[in-house]
Amino acid sequence: MGKQQGAALSGHIRRGRAFLLESEEFDLARPGYLPRKMFFTMAQWGMWMKYSAHMRRYCSRQFDRALGIARGAGVAPEYIILMHAMEVEMNRVDYFMPGACSAIGVRGTRAAGGEPVIVKNFDYPDKFRDMYIARLDEPADRFKVLCSTAAPLAGNHDGINEHGLTICYNYGYGQDEPRRNVPITFLVQEALETCRTTQEAVAMISHGRRSGGALLMICDAAGDLRTLEVSNTMARERMPQHSVLINTNHYLDEVMARIDVPRDAVYTDRVARPLRGVRCRESSEARYARALELLAGRDTIDDRALMAMAADHGADGAPSDNTICRHSDYFCTTCSLVFYPARRAMKITHGNPCCSDYVEFTL
């Protein structure tokens, strides 16, 4: 599967290298005395030395797939591992916050028709959108997975499997130090390939060796909807309130909140220019509050209402970095998804949901 993916997307994967070399984010990490290409080569080998042994030991199937992507695309394995490592290495608030997302899930009596539904906006710099793909995985000895991911990645950010198990990954920013270097996208893919229920996925990811932070919205076909808040070393469950869950990018569990980015933390001059001087959690807290406001007073919520929430521009209708449908000089909603666990279906649009159409795929 990795070799097929690499061959089909070799152009995207190869362009990603040139794009990364020219990006502001890359320059922010590069010591000024090092030429770009030299620093890129050093970064590739550094990430290979740091990540490859742990990936191979603790998530060997996905590591093998990453090597297959490299072979199919005709690029160095070290480059593909670098692209996976970026998820974790850029997860440092004093440098560059790698993304921000909003997810809303409903189940039971609040869900129209009783069918659980999740909507998820993936927010990232718009320039990366060319790397996004929708992918169907059909491993011979595991479960089929329909997911949203990026061209060089073996894992995924959001997906659903043939049993209806759905996982949506929002970035989290726990400040504890990792003990193992395995990106969470690997674990999301592994859980979808091997687990049938929310309970199984929660147990697998909670005990998995990983690096990075996340707020994972997990739901199965029976409507068991939960959030698993994870950091490098900790994992805590959060249950729905009145059959609804909301995830943005700050921890809500009391224990997890102790290791989160402080509420008054402000971006320094070590980040991309549009973020400098902005309070790190400003957008996350604003989007969470707006989701609460939109859900208040609704007895039932259907997928159309959730898609309208995904396209929301705030009470005054002015799109910004703090609206659920994000528009700014840096972060934008680059992908929006709707999941239907009971009927094993996913809708996806690449772009802001306020001005693009969803396409449906089913298992």
Explain what this protein looks like in three dimensions.
It is built from eleven helices and 13 strands. The protein is of the alpha+beta class and 363 residues long. It has two domains: 2-89, no CATH class; 100-362, Penicillin V Acylase, Chain A (4-Layer Sandwich). The strands form two sheets. It has a seven-stranded antiparallel sheet, covered by helices on one side. Strands 10-1-2-11-12-13 form a six-stranded antiparallel sheet, with helices on one face. The longest helix is centred in the first third of the chain and has 23 residues, at 36-58. The radius of gyration is 19 Å and the shape is globular. The two termini are 18 Å apart. 48% of the residues are buried. The mean pLDDT is 94.
Give the CATH topology of the largest domain: Penicillin V Acylase, Chain A
Strand content range: 15-25%
Radius of gyration: 19 Å
Terminal CA distance: 18 Å
Overall domain count = 2
Shape: globular
**Fraction in helix:** 25-40%
| Biggest sheet character | 7 strands, antiparallel
- What spatial order of strands do you see in the largest sheet? 3-4-5-6-7-8-9
In round numbers, the mean pLDDT is 94
What's the CATH architecture name of the largest domain?
Answer: 4-Layer Sandwich
Uncertain residue ranges: none
Number of strands: 13
Output the helix-strand order. Answer: HHHHHHEEEEEEHHEEEEHHHEEE
Structural class: alpha+beta
CATH homologous superfamily designation of the largest domain: Penicillin V Acylase, Chain A
Overall CATH class of the largest domain: Alpha Beta
Number of alpha- plus pi-helical segments: 11
